[in-house]
Amino acid sequence: MTPLPKIMLAPNGARLTKADHPALPMTPAEILETTQACRAKGADGLHLHLRDAEGKHLLDAGAYADALKLFDAEMPGFPVQITTEAVGMYDPAHQRHVALNSGADMVSASVRELCRDDHDVTRAFYNECHQRGIAVQHILYDVEDAALLTRVLDGALLTAPDLQLIFVLGRYAVGQKSDPKELDPFLDWLTSTGLTPDWAVCAFGPSETPALLRAVQAGGKCRIGFENSRQHADGSTATDNAARVAELVKACAELA
Fold first, then answer.
1. In the chain, what are the domain boundaries?
2. How many CB atoms lie within 10 A of CB 240?
3. Does the global pTM surpass 0.85?
4. Is CATH 3.20.20.70 what the domain over 7-255 is classified as, yes or no?
5. How many other CB atoms are found less than 10 A from the CB of residue 42?
6. Which of 27, 106, 161, 218 is the most exposed place for a label (fewest CB within 10 A)?
7. How far apart are CA 46 and CA 56, in angstroms?
8. Tens digit of pLDDT for each residue in 140-179?
């Protein structure tokens, strides 16, 4: 399985537009340009969201396949993870189809969303991804999601060292403002279960940088970008995604 990058770029998300920030990339070409700029600042992977012609969230296996070919041609070897986020538009069957038929070897998926369907079907999907060498990063919004994952994922996959998780901080907080302390319940869960996954954090709002630094200090990795925050730690608005990456890289260096 492809391991998680240390700093994965999330440049746009499923909902934001250029009305939220003029430098937010919308098209594959814009996402490519943004990713190249962020790689120069220290990002070593991409979390990919696509949009349709009207700028709306798009889960389409063919569109993903085309985008992955573009990145493979322009940034060979650079890890690209596709999202399967439903955004209230897609059902679990469609999410599974996209994950399995886009050609991606890295996929992020919410266990909460997939378990809207039969748990046995979800379990079989996870097993098929593993058999095909598709690394699934399981999105966990709270420890209830973590407990759900332990019930749905087969034991061998749950305890494997290449289990990939992302802990989401602030998604359902007031004003989507995260707090680094929101990581603590997840860390307690890891300790109580004895699991040692490959894990990362993403965090919403102006505390994105402090929250990601908390993750690094605890041995985790980061997902950063305009999907979650357009603000630096001092509250100022970043000029672009590369500026957010640059701040994180500098802050991580200062931890050493």
1. 7-255
2. 21
3. yes
4. yes
5. 18
6. 161
7. 19
8. 999 999 999 999 999 999 999 899 999 999 875 556 778 9
